[in-house]
Amino acid sequence: MRDTYSEDLVHGKPGFVNNIIFSLSILLILVGISSTLFMPGIGISVVILAIVMLMFSISKRNIEFEYIITNGDVEIAVIYNKSSRKNKYSFLLDEISYIAKYNSPRIDGEITQGKIKTTHNFTDGNIDDNTYGFVVEKSGVKELVVLRLSEKSTDIFKIGAKNKFYND
Description:
Blueprint: E1 5-11, H1 16-35, H2 40-59, E2 63-70, E3 73-80, E4 84-91, E5 96-101, H3 105-112, E6 116-121, E7 131-138, E8 141-148, H4 151-160
Parallel strand pairs: 6-8
Antiparallel strand pairs: 1-2, 2-3, 3-4, 5-7, 7-8
Helix pairs in contact: 1-2
């Protein structure tokens, strides 16, 4: 494979846990404010705790996924509020069993048969023609990695992993 490089940035959605913490913190703020009338010490403590929870939740609501593809090897990071970056997942070209459209019957078959043990979705949840499933085998365990690729990134895999790339 010739030297290739691509970088994609995909906006993500906050996870289920983040949404629960956000909603719960707003509810606790309301309960804390109303309870300060009857029990000022406990009410103020609840409000302070809820504000801390709300700040934590807000700091994790604006997320983007960054895919860096170098010679077919993929590194995935999450960027919170355009300021803090955390590496989430990486895999090598040799670890890819195959690549197919995410809604492909090939991937659905492996999921229903229980061959894929873990799914890592690094997209905003919307499925379109550029959403691909990478079946990656690490230590004998198959995992599904869902990515939304740009045309340049798709071309890299079509050329570099042509025997592993299925367009069905």
